Please model this.
Amino acid sequence: MVTIKDSVHDHIDIDGVAEALLETPPVQRLRRIRQLGTVQLVYPSANHTRFEHSLGVFHLADRALEHLSVAGQQAERVRAAALLHDIGHSPYSHNTEEVVERYTGRAHDDVGPLITEGPVARVLTEHGLDPSAVAGLVRGEGELGQLVSGELDVDRMDYLVRDAHHTGNPYGIIDQARLVRELALVDGELALAEGNVQTAESLLLARALMNPTVYNHHAARVGKAMLRRGAERLLEGGVSPEELRRMDDWDFHVALRDEESTAAIAHRLDRRDLFKRAVWAEIVDVPDDLFDADYYEIQSLERDVADRAGVDPDAVIVDIPGEPRMKESTTKVVVNGEARRLDQQSALVDALRTAQREQWRMGVYCPAEHTDSVGPAAESVLGLELDALVTDVRTRMHARLDEF
Model:
């Protein structure tokens, strides 16, 4: 057994298959993958890694299994899946995942050969575990797979508190101990036991507050968009999708510096000389057809905006997030002996959905010297319905905010 001192959970005891998995290269690689990617550009102390987070997820999974009275090989499979759940992440975590997934067809939880082949598979097999079954748990398959990937997974319970701790932001604080203690399996579904509607609401509220202040902070989103642009250029320049997928943050940043087409992006990120917001549009101002635009359509729109503004196409990034969704609202809570969806029991869910839509923003980014020309060009090309006076006020406000 090894005992690791953790900044969130204090001491974490690791033994069995998890102890052996700790020393495998795919797990050690997570030491070089930042948990929050470009959020560090906003919160300087947000330098925690996927490795720390994976230890936390293992710890909470272990506590949950004990509470659910799950033991033996079944429990060992879940512990292994909890520790391995993030080994499929591309560099800078979710920041480049969208690009990698489009080229490889693999999301970060589609761990496939990373678990069923190589050193991880050897360790699992030596401990009598089927690597394919562990990979399935990482994807959320089966009754206990919900613990690793689901609406009440221990992944979410760890990252909210860990991200709040390392950003110094109090909004992600939740009662992890109660959440784990109140877990129950009802007709094959993971739920919170009777009397825990407010416990489930607290998880939903924490995520809703962390989204605008941390995960979707405008500077982090601009940095993320620049990293995505860099990843696209590397792939166009001959880097294979699988090679990019297995890079760590250090490899990726060196690759950006060394490639002629991405060196300028790397230089800007090194100096925190980020693009600025030329447009920051609310959801009501955005035409419906833009939500369905794929990568190639957005690329065409960027060229059109650049052409109308009279700037280089590389100087314009159009950033259209998906329509707001609240996965946690389907969390199951036992009410009067029956497992029910949280959104059927809580009036708070509708209020948070409304807030989520009001917080949603579409961005168009460019170098600071081009915002005055790119903003109007983007409004015209994208068909945005922005009030001229409101647009002017927002532009000046964003210019001030972007200084920080």
About this structure: The radius of gyration is 22 Å. The chain has two domains: 2-214+328-355, 275-323+360-404.
